[in-house]
Amino acid sequence: MAGTFDGRDFIAGGYIIEHGQPEPCTVIREDGSLSIDPGLPDRSDFTAYFIRDMVNGHTHCADYGLRIPPGMSMEELVAPPNGLKHRYLSGLDGTALRKNISAFSTASAGHGSASFIDFREGGVEGCRALRDCCPDALILGRPVSDGFDPEEMAELLSVADGIGLPSISDMDRAYIESVADDVRRARKVMAIHVSERVREDIDFVLSLDPAFVVHMCEATDSDMSKCAEAEVPVVVCPTANLYFGKEVPIVRMFDCGLDVALGTDNGMLCEPDLVSESTVLSGLISRQGGDPEDVWKTLSNFTSKLLYRTSRMEGKIRERYLTVIPVKTVEAPVLGPSTPFRVTFNRGESRYGVQ
After folding, report:
1. Residue 162, by phi and psi: left (phi above 0), alpha (psi -120 to 50) or beta?
2. Angle value at C-alpha 82, between 134 and 95, nearest 5 degrees
3. Sign of the C-alpha dihedral, residues 158, 160, 164, 170?
4. Which of 42, 128, 201, 352 can bridge 36 by disulfide, Cβ–Cβ 3.0-4.6 Å?
5. What is the reported pTM?
6. What CATH topology corresponds to 55-314?
């Protein structure tokens, strides 16, 4: 199977992942229509796992064209405003920016994701570029003014689905609170990087009413439990974190009751390939003494746990997709090497579970 689906009909048997649990199913594509039925088929063209609306929970797509030298620290590479990434982005003209974004979007679709949530740098113009290149992307913009600018925020929120901020360590608290207030008034959503390189004040973060937070590598169990109690999910990005010598405390997150989604972070660090990212995460789970099958939760709970909370964002996804992950056998508890693809899917056609 190729990463880009060629449109042919098929009958596939395997397991659909619903709320982290595999359920036997038959997927039939015939004359452009897709159906999902319970139970395994008598015969099939191939075996696969299936995930509805698999969304990449955290990306930075515009730096996809940047090739980074080895050995850079987190501050040298991504800290605003003088990190290599930000200097690279500031030097892109409109054509180069759109080329990077389009290439990233094509790669994301080719790896089977239905959509991705992008923390879009570059202010209003950065958000417009992403909207033009990828209408299905969920866009969390970032202001570019040195101080809080109500006019900029209003224009930004007219284009973006919400605001995605760097860590509270990088910004003035009064500024952050003003941004959060404007987001709430606009009835949109805000997300923020938290405790990526150092532990940060989770009480202040939660007072901003974020839809979700990203990373939490340096969070304590108390921090995680507070997020769980507030029903604020966390998006983890294990490959990007490992590049900087950080390890996602994924088993502790599960133990604290956190809802966890998976992201691939910066395009300059790794491909927007959630299936490959899930193998990295399952390895961390095993090394931390957990059950590697828990990795399914991070791929399949996203719509029910995160997009449900941010329903205005869910409505932005113009197409629904079924991610198909062909495998030699579905007896293995976690994924190995595979080439996923996605198929357009009308939920009303499903006869399996929740429509």
Report:
1. left
2. 30
3. negative
4. 352
5. 0.90
6. TIM Barrel (3.20.20)
